[in-house]
């Protein structure tokens, strides 16, 4: 067997993380408060927002519920607009 393909879309992860941060700030929610409300580690919230790790679909629904937005709002971005 050959090498396992890398399916990590770094540009997409950064765009999603940037969008999460935008929505969180629009709602006046700190990373600490979001971490507490979702029972996730503060460092995990930061890593998602920086695009270092992805968020599962379960986390998308959890973030949406916590922030009072629709899950689709997290995907309202264009990947090519993200600064590298």
From TrEMBL:
This is XRE family transcriptional regulator. PROSITE patterns: HTH_CROC1. GO terms for molecular function: DNA binding. Residues 20-74 form the HTH cro/C1-type domain. It comes from the Bacteria.
């Amino acid at each position: 067997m050959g090498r396992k393909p890398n399916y990590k879309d770094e540009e997409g992860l950064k765009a999603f993380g940037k969008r999460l941060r935008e929505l969180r700030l629009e709602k006046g929610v700190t990373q600490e408060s979001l971490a507490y409300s979702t029972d996730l580690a503060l460092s995990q919230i930061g890593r998602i927002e920086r695009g270092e790790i992805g968020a599962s679909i379960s986390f998308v629904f959890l973030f949406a519920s916590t922030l009072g937005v629709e899950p689709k709002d997290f995907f309202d971005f264009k990947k090519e607009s993200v600064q590298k």
